[in-house]
Amino acid sequence: MTMPKRRLGAEGPTVSAIGFGSMSFGGFFGPADDDTSLETLAAVAAAGIDFWDTANIYGMGRAERIVGQYLKQTGARITLATKAGIIPGPPRHYSNDADYIRAELESSLQKLNRDKVELYYIHRREEKRPVEEVAETMGRLIEEGLIDAWGLSEVAPSTIRRAHRVVPLTAVQNEYSLWTRLPELGVIQTCEDLGIAFIPFSPIGRGALGVGDLDPQSFGSHDFRKQNPRFLEPNWSENMDYIRAFRRFAEDKGVTPPALAIAWVLHQGDHLIPIPGTRTAEHLADWAQAAEIGLSEDDLWEIEQILPAGWAAGDRYSDTQLFGVERYC
């Protein structure tokens, strides 16, 4: 089957209903190598996924460079998003300063072998800088033809409304999945009301809802999940009881757990375009057909009984990782 399409915002292009996130190319979830990443991108393209997401901070430019290399080698036509705003430090901090955002965009374009990107996100909002000022900065980049549209990441509904009034947003990207459902308390509805695409990242729960059991004890020292409370004991063992029940339901339906998890996200609204990521083509095959899975009202009810809202033990981020994420509930 052909990958279904969804519109990226009220005025944006149509893109594959499932996108691809390249965070894992930067080594956040274990060792990554360029050849394997390029093979993964080839599999992504073959699956009909033409909406790709990256960021300047993923591997400190490594993910952007790999995407740029693939695009230069193949001439693939995709809708591309990248991000800026996080400065790793130490200490980690954020900047939405106009000169910084422009300089990072120019650096990203060079690595991506592009003269523009279709979507440019503020990766984290700088708390003390009015978002209206940031919107004006992004509006100038649009006027200059360096970006087609702009977005925000990990923000509250109030921030979305304020920014959208100045320069309309095309997309908002927050974590959303069966184990992280905070966006249901305002972000999803606000995006729908304003004609903004909502882009759920980590729709497979950072691998927790994958095909096999993860072993957090085996995570490398640089694995992003090593500090996530949900992957620490006693939370992890409690979470696995729920996850195994979900796996059994997926198996009864004849689909993989990650594909079912993504299908559930897709059923939460036509303006949702999830961007799962993976390091390998093998894992991509586990969920690439998720948009083909139909879910009945009975299926959705059953999933809700197995994984009710708030089921996950532990926070999605450690206190250090949570710094910079807007809280609104």
Automatic annotation (TrEMBL):
<dbReference type="Pfam" id="PF00248">
    <property type="entry name" value="Aldo_ket_red"/>
</dbReference>
<dbReference type="InterPro" id="IPR036812">
    <property type="entry name" value="NAD(P)_OxRdtase_dom_sf"/>
</dbReference>
<feature type="domain" description="NADP-dependent oxidoreductase">
    <location>
        <begin position="17"/>
        <end position="306"/>
    </location>
</feature>
<dbReference type="GO" id="GO:0005737">
    <property type="term" value="C:cytoplasm"/>
</dbReference>
<protein>
    <submittedName>
        <fullName>Aldo/keto reductase</fullName>
    </submittedName>
</protein>
<dbReference type="InterPro" id="IPR050791">
    <property type="entry name" value="Aldo-Keto_reductase"/>
</dbReference>
<keyword id="KW-0560">Oxidoreductase</keyword>
<dbReference type="GO" id="GO:0016491">
    <property type="term" value="F:oxidoreductase activity"/>
</dbReference>
<dbReference type="InterPro" id="IPR023210">
    <property type="entry name" value="NADP_OxRdtase_dom"/>
</dbReference>
